Amino acid sequence: MKKYILLFVTTFVLQILVNAQTWRSAYNTPIVPISGGCMTDQNTAWLVGSMSIPGSLSALGIYKSTDGGITWMIKYRVDSIYSGMDISFVNSTTGFAGFTHGTILKTTDGGDSWQQIWIPDTTYSNTKIHFFDANLGFSLATNGSSTKIYKTTDGGNTWTTTATIANSMEAMDFYSPTTGIATGSNGNLYYTTDGVTWNKAPVPTFGGINYTRSDQWGLKFISSTTAVSGGWGSSAAGLQPTIFLKTTDSGATWTYMAQAAANLTYVNCNSIYFKDQLNGYAVGGSTNPGTVIFRTTDGGTNWVSIPTVAGFSAKIVMGYNNQVIISGADGNIIISSDFGNSWTSTAKFPDGTISSINIINNDIYSCGYDGTFFKSSDLGSTFNMSFMVSGNKCLWSKGIYFLNENLGYAASQFGQVLKTTNAGASWNQVKTDSLSNFINNSGLYFINENIGFVVGNYGSNVDIIYKTTDGGGSWSNSQNKAFQNLNCISFADAMHGAAGGNKSSILYTTDQGTTWNPATVNAVDQLAINGINFYNGLNGIAVGTGIFLKTADGGATWNEITFPSYLQSATISGICHDSSGTLYAVGKTYCIKSTNSGNTWQNIMDSVFAAHTYITAMNSIALDKSGFIWIAHGKGIITNSPVTGITKDKVEPLTFRLEQNYPNPFNPSTMISFTNPQNGFVTLKLFDILGREVRIMYKGEMAAGTHTINFNAGNLPSGNYIYYLQVNEKFISRKMTLLK
Predict the structure, then answer these.
(1) How far apart are CA 45 and CA 324, in angstroms?
(2) DSSP 472
(3) Which of 611 and 310 is assigned the larger pLDDT?
(4) Gap between the Cα atoms of 464 and 461, Å rounded
(5) Among 37, 304, 322, 432, which residue's beta carbon has the most beta carbons within 10 A?
């Protein structure tokens, strides 16, 4: 998979250089968040998921591993309105993938090609599917408020409704074609003993705990009569322990499995896997504490959470004997080949927000959602991702600050502060977290190795500034001076600093943070301050949501300055300066530059590039030692730094490209040209705007080079279509318009 990522990024960069563009993606995500998976043997695994891409359709993905989850290849991907839900393989060649809008994809050749079939009601989504062989299978289909359970005996050509339930059901599992269970919202539990009729089981009592919800998402049979279910848990609505249920009569009755106080967790259980009747894993998670993995050795009666190894919310766990694979909301994957004694992260893609970026010499550091930490030791030529795990927590880090190549700090949700002394290889909590959603750290600044500050909120509109003078060993605080959440902090020198927050609130200090006072802010509107930068002595700029301010006295007084009209409603989040005092700021899809102390600004971001890189918001900016810009955004990292070893005068002769068809619009014929850099298996398909496959234009081996195919639309109706090219593990798609 790492090779695939490198090819993806390199190809994209080369395309940018060929077109004389200066911006490129340095790190982004080519995979989708995972919602379903299965394994057919120790080595063969399948995943399915979907991702919403701003400004376009969703991207669907079906992925296959033949080495137990270490590497993954794409077997199906296309832009579509559909979302991937679940996948079920009956052997090495025959499998079914369930999607929204009643769609199921079927393969009989190990995923090389897929046939589209539908359940009768296409307003329902195939939340769970379970097939026993190439013919016999079930679909648990929901529309958000009701559920239908379908059965097929001819491989999905026809379906029979076996149950209609006036609730949303979430999980389904079978021990045999006649023995099955379905679980869902509001404690709904159904079972069948003949594979045709479904009976409702009584809702069990929940140990005297007043649960606000009792939804069940995880479900697994471990014998012909015994099954385990897992579901709701919450710390936000009062401490409500994770619900575990167990049945010993094939689902007719259920018992609540109360856990020992030391083992209580307060997160949702989303999926369960058992390798035998005693030993199993369940997974879940939330923003606090991150990935949660439960283990049982007594058939689901007692569950113990093991130390977290990642920060994403785990949606599925699957396995085959001792091989266990866990994946989830942001496309990350962790595997174990020894049934959980050790874990390895094998796919590392930031689907969530990348919040902050910092550069020291050749090292680039960035952090973000799910506790993800990205590091490059070669000025962005390569990036490694890990998780900032400490105190058995992995929380969203919103700010990062390194003082040298090894020493760094991170400010996190729930009031946590982390410290590393080994360049991010490991992290220690120097300020512990809280369970409260209202306590968060947003920004930080260190004057030296010992003296530093962290800002955030200690409740709704209760600002707080923490100060350490011993490298995080202890902290003092100044609280509720601005009566607003604080978002950022910066210092002009060792004594003068300023912290900015909501409603144009700014606090300033002249005594190294011993005291903080409200600044005088001369602004018409009260808007959020997201970034502050002192670029020349006591001169500084503050930026925010539709507001630019300037100070000449170290932050005591601020006045509004003029900025471009297109930024009136844009959220500007980060600001920095170079050695000459040139200012750079980022937000939304803009990177702006000022060479005259903020009096005028120029947008230097390539709008064409920004529109094609899944950028949802630019959050943080830093400059490297050569003055090139690095930006952390909602889906990754972008830069205007050139690629090492690649220049505009010397570009690889072949890059993976799919050209826009010509003519376009067309009637009825058009030419499609593409370039593949190596020999490989080529598939060129056509889909309608609903994501339904309507034509295979080419399928077979093809030599490296540039090729052109003449496509005749024949009897296809007028409309917009998507043509999709896949060569080996690489893919790309474009839109075309047929006008008759």
Answers:
(1) 10
(2) T
(3) 310
(4) 10
(5) 37
